[in-house]
Amino acid sequence: MEAAQVFRKVEKIVCVGAGYVGGPTCAMIAHKCPNITVTVVDMNTEKIAEWNSDKLPIYEPGLDEIVFAARNKNLFFSSDIPKAIREADLIFISVNTPTKMYGRGKGMAPDLKYVESVSRTIAEHAIGPKIVVEKSTVPVRAAESIGCILREAQKHNPDLKFQVLSNPEFLAEGTAMRDLANPDRVLIGGENSVEGLEAVSQLVRVYEHWVPRERIITTNTWSSELSKLVANAFLAQRISSINAISAVCEATGADVGEVAHAVGCDSRIGPKFLQASVGFGGSCFQKDVLSLVYLCESLNLPQVAEYWQSVIDVNNWQRRRFANKIIAELFNTVTDKKIAIFGFAFKKNTGDTRESSAIYVAQHLMEEHAKLSIYDPKVSKQQMFNDLKNVTSSQDVDRLVTFETDPYEAARDAHAIVILTEWDEFLTLDYNRIHETMKHPSAIFDGRLILDQKHLQNIGFRTFAIGSASEQEYNLFGSSI
Ligand code: UDX
Ligand code: ADP
């Protein structure tokens, strides 16, 4: 005889955490599963109000349309966390796990206080069986801690039943809706027990609404948790690898774009994530690589820790190397010189600035007393102010930085333009017009390799791009720091 089912068919999903992961993911589930009611909750009531307004709290191409179509039909945003938990069949934990800035593991380990707090809230308010799914990126065996808290509640209330699954999210910002609609894979990790397998198959059924079954991978919980860290570490490692090679290109006359293309044509290597840049940013790569380093150190695997730490070290070096290049090429002093920064987001098509390389390049230039005028099409002035204040001081930001809403104004009277985000609109600006209003000689430092160097040189700019030796001389970027 088959064992009775513990978990109901999933009809109500709750997601705790209405951020960059929770919001878009749940919007897609609601869009693809009209028979499932999805409620996204957050302790931040302002954020929930924004999710319920005409201006959503995050910018993500394609998100507005899906949210506006499903909202208040089968997609809800609410601050009533206990009610949502009581009613849910399945609960996603999508809260932030930032790098810890205090105590044990400071600067390395992810801070699990939000995950733990949600687990306790679930334990307190749950009635009946619940499938609890960690979507936040967590260290290996975090599911065990969540399970431990939930099992404690179970002891006092036999009606409660919990299964904890790992279902990491692989979406990238800027392409989140596309990634969610058409994922390379969905990964679900669970316990190898009757109830564990039942919970896994319930979540598989949710994704099967739109993801082909062969793209849904099921593993044990720890493999799933570790795979998320490893996927991000591999992607970050490719960027640090090509960025390390960019320095060799600058010193030799090789072109990093050509090298990346030639290397990426090998089907064993592949072309993606080989775009040299001023360094990777975003909320995930640095945090997850550091989490992996911390894990390896905790497991007494210092060689493995050191290997992954070097991915971070090269990234920091690349940012400083680029800032130093700007200073060197502006005749070794940027004091009181106006420098226009084009782009502040960590990549195009997002307003997110977390760990953006722009923050650190700006910081280095501010340390040299440069006057920055910053333009980004999607990042608010307040956000940029806060980011820069955190690495310098409010007084320095007030003294040295202006925030512009027009790139032409940002560049007026500047000695140089520095491209830090690869926004498409930077490709179509009228650089003739910009050049006329700048101080001469005018320079453009392309930290994203998006502009046509020849065209700019014909206008009269001095140009410098990561990973390409300029026509003017070799070894321009080559000086080590
Ligand atoms: C990343 C992972 O791609 C995603 O799977 C995971 O779920 C979260 O972390 P995200 O940080 O949103 O996504 O963006 P991604 O496109 O990976 O870019 C990260 C950083 O690397 C950006 O600063 C980007 O500009 C930079 N990058 C990316 C490069 O410098 N070169 C490249 O070739 C690719
Ligand atoms: P991510 O990029 O991982 O989605 P975000 O910072 O964008 O991270 O979003 C995480 C969200 O989780 C935030 O809106 C935060 O307010 C919310 N959050 C954190 N802890 C809790 C909690 N205990 N209960 C409810 N919401 C929480």
TrEMBL record:
Catalytic activity: UDP-alpha-D-glucose + 2 NAD(+) + H2O = UDP-alpha-D-glucuronate + 2 NADH + 3 H(+)
Residues at the active site: C284
Main EC class the enzyme belongs to: oxidoreductase
Pathway in which this enzyme or protein is active: Nucleotide-sugar biosynthesis; UDP-alpha-D-glucuronate biosynthesis; UDP-alpha-D-glucuronate from UDP-alpha-D-glucose: step 1/1
GO cellular component: nucleus
UniProt GO molecular function: NAD binding; UDP-glucose 6-dehydrogenase activity
EC numbers for this chain: 1.1.1.22
Pfam families (alphabetical): UDPG_MGDP_dh, UDPG_MGDP_dh_C, UDPG_MGDP_dh_N
Key word Oxidoreductase present: yes
GO biological process: glycosaminoglycan biosynthetic process
Domain UDP-glucose/GDP-mannose dehydrogenase C-terminal positions: 340-453
Residues the record lists as binding NAD(+): 17-22, 42, 47, 95-99, 136-137, 173, 284-287, 354
InterPro entries: 6-PGluconate_DH-like_C_sf, NAD(P)-bd_dom_sf, UDP-Glc/GDP-Man, UDP-Glc/GDP-Man_DH_C, UDP-Glc/GDP-Man_DH_C_sf, UDP-Glc/GDP-Man_DH_dimer, UDP-Glc/GDP-Man_DH_N, UDPglc_DH_euk
Family classification: Belongs to the UDP-glucose/GDP-mannose dehydrogenase family.
Functional summary from the UniProt entry: Involved in the biosynthesis of glycosaminoglycans; hyaluronan, chondroitin sulfate, and heparan sulfate.
Name listed for the protein in its UniProt record: UDP-glucose 6-dehydrogenase
